[in-house]
Amino acid sequence: MLAFAPLHTAASAAAAVVTWLADTLVPLTGGAAMAAAIVLFTIGVRLLIWPLTVAQVRGERRRAALAPEVRDLQRRYADDPARLQSELFALYRRAGASPVAGCLPALLQAPFFLVMYRLFATGDGTGGLLDERLAGVPLGWHLGDGLSGPVLAVFGVLLAALLALAWWSSRRARRAAAATGTPTAGPGGALLGRLVPLLPYTTLLVALVVPLAAVLYLVISTGWTALEQAVLRRPQPEGIDMH
After folding, report:
1. Contact, 19 vs 130, CB < 8 A?
2. Handedness of CA 66, 69, 74, 80 (dihedral sign)
3. What backbone phi and psi angles, to 5 degrees, belong to 235?
4. pLDDT digits 0-9 by tens, 50-79
5. 200: which residues sit within 8 A by CB, 6+ positions away?
6. pTM of structure
7. Which of 35, 93, 130, 148 is positioned for an S-S bond with 134, CB 3.0–4.6 A?
8. Hey, where are the domains in the chain?
């Protein structure tokens, strides 16, 4: 599964980076060095896509500024959902504020997640990484492997963290859609409006079937996203632009 050359090369490169980080951290973290290395690797990935996240937030602010025009269009074409949908997307296009641009940072994380999955699910190019542990549980194990107390405890804590983060992110997504006037008229827009708040919960579903190392990656990355939302999306003083 997922055994093609580019992914194999990427997994080998990631293994080298994660192993080097773990070796460096051993004096500080002992047996948790590999888990700590995964945390640092995840933070490094998020820093790489930071400029795109900032651009995403700027786009959201543009959409918020268009809210009065959106409400005007909604009143004007209240009886013509198809025309309203067309006019709304035309408005966003002219302003350079796509209503779905926020998905880009998440999509760009997918290759890194696949690498992490391959790294610990197959052991491809990893040496002894599959034998490393977090709180006594091998990082290559899935939730269904050895249903003992430590496995349930470690996975339980991480899944609970993902659930809390998904709930928080879903609430923010609903509020953001309401504040920016994201188009929900017509079948396509209505479906989008229902799906966007549910997207954060997909990480929880994924975490049920991937190795512990990938679950740890998801928790750190999702937590980073929540921190970004709290910092970058806080109210800005009048006339101040974000760089």
Report:
1. no
2. negative
3. -55, 135
4. 887 777 777 767 777 777 888 888 888 888
5. 165, 166, 167, 169, 170, 173, 222
6. 0.69
7. 35
8. 5-232
